């Protein structure tokens, strides 16, 4: 009887918001800017998150094809959990001066593509955040915040809410071998007089922030433990291990490369055509879960000696017929994990294939192809047509816990962790 009452309570409390449609804070406004990176120092694949008052900084870098010194500045802005503005004064969340000139740069060498490489660490003695939450880093020219060059997200976290999470096989036999279920338990004993309706849980698969799943209240409450485990809600398609591109050398034709071509000072790389992997058997191998690493096997210094190339991707649909009612996207950090015109593959009726060309810096890239219905988008179908779904796939899941304190003006980030599906087994 107690179990039945608990189950009823859980079903009553559980409030599911679904895919969290958010404002996207990652924007590039200057077409000369490339390879914008923001990550914890010496952790290039990690989420751009730091602890409040921590000494371990973020490293921010970018390349400028204008190849001449530009008068760049940066500032930060505190945002809400859904990346809407807080309307708070910067003095309420900043220690220091919220307009810092970027003085550290170096000039490319060896590379045919000339560029200036800018790099700095944050926080620093000039500027520190004083509150946890979502932040936007803004880089702009000439000390004028209206001359934006790019904006990039980062997170400042506190560990006031403990997180225990695991990846499970769904009970539903229809998806048990194709999807992964996330179970999350939050320990909120450090939050006095918790108001659960002010708490938000966001779970993100492989850094696809805009497709995260959000809950506003738990399914079960057991004392100080809040549990999120609804069977048909906190579920993600598993996909397959990512495809890869080894662009660390401009001399070696690696496994995925068909040919190199040089036109003037520009490098062109043509990849072997891709096709659907939906009917292929699952095989495990190490991948970067949609991320990339800037590296170079031809030189000693990656930041300024790596060259750039125009990289052409090709996807062959079944029978060379375009997908009906669907758009095809190249998905991963190489397209900023966005589903927009920059990531959309374009069908060529003459050749019967989809194509996309990106300008990429030398490195090792991982990516997938996904589809979206033009009339009824459903993230649970993303990989069905192009990659297939296998429960065994290794995926990263990042968990954010936001809380609006009583009388607060913004959403604090009081819990944060990243788990891996393999480590949960």
Which class do the helix and strand fractions yield? mainly beta
Strand percent estimate:
35-45%
How many structural domains does the protein architecture include?
Answer: 3
| Regions with little confidence, pLDDT below 50 for 5+ residues | 1-14
What is the helix fraction of residues, given as a range?
A: under 10%
Number of helices: 2
**Overall form:** globular
| End-to-end C-alpha gap | 32 Å
How many E strands? 32
Rg for CA atoms: 23 Å
The description of the largest β-sheet is: 6 strands, mixed
Your description of this structure?
This protein has 425 residues and is mostly beta strands. It folds into three domains: 2-19 and 160-238 and 395-424, Immunoglobulin-like (Sandwich), CATH 2.60.40.10; 31-157, Sandwich (Immunoglobulin-like); 243-381, no CATH class. Helix content is 4%, strand content 44%. The strands form seven sheets. Strands 2, 4, 6, 8, 12 and 13 form a six-stranded mixed sheet that branches. Strands 22, 23, 24, 26, 28 and 29 form a six-stranded mixed sheet that branches. Strand 12 (133-141) and strand 13 form a beta hairpin. The radius of gyration is 23 Å and the shape is globular.
